[in-house]
Write a structure and sequence with these properties.
Order of helices and strands: HHHEEEE
Structural class: mainly alpha
Number of strands: 4
Radius of gyration: 38 Å
Shape: rod-shaped
Strand content: 5-15%
Helix content: 55-70%
């Protein structure tokens, strides 16, 4: 139903016109080109070609015939091409997914390790690793100071600014 609204009656008429006129121009232009070739290549001695001018008429007719045929039959061509390309695109995607899995896993692991190393810090009391947002140590329960978001250094809980880089901790 959606395609019926998209392709109007005027569109169908125009497409039918292009489907008629395009091949007609191709046939007429091809015939003119053939006559011009035969006339040119069957000359005897220094005889002048009689129908050489047909080349100059045939070339624009062939061009217009190709254009109008493409417009008239473009839907068929596009559907055919998409059916030809879809399996190739699918195979390419599956190949890339299969062949890059290990690389993607390595990158993911590296990012997780980096994230873990930057988001964790050691408790000043027991040296247990804790997350940056932890207020108390997971191991000893001691209150942990504030971690600077800029340089990741530990400052005391009551500090408003980082002891290392003077970034605001509030």
């Amino acid at each position: 139903m959606g395609q019926e609204k998209f392709i109007t009656e005027q569109h169908r008429k125009t497409r039918s016109f292009f489907r008629f006129l395009g091949p007609l121009l191709l046939i007429v232009g091809g015939a003119m080109m053939l006559v011009a070739f035969i006339d040119f290549f069957t000359l005897q001695g220094f005889e002048e070609p009689k129908y050489f001018w047909l080349f100059f008429v045939a070339i624009p007719l062939l061009f217009l015939g190709f254009i109008l045929s493409g417009l008239g039959f473009g839907g068929f061509i596009a559907k055919y091409q998409s059916r030809e390309y879809a399996p190739v695109a699918k195979d390419t995607f599956n190949y890339l997914a299969k062949e890059t899995t290990s690389g993607v896993k390595e990158i993911s692991n590296a990012l997780q390790l980096e994230s873990a190393s930057t988001d964790n810090f050691a408790c000043p009391h027991c040296k247990q690793q804790n997350t940056v947002n932890a207020k108390f140590c997971n191991e000893c329960g001691e209150k942990i100071g504030r971690i600077c978001s800029s340089c990741k250094q530990l400052s005391s809980n009551d500090a408003n600014f980082c002891d290392e880089c003077v970034t605001s901790l509030t």
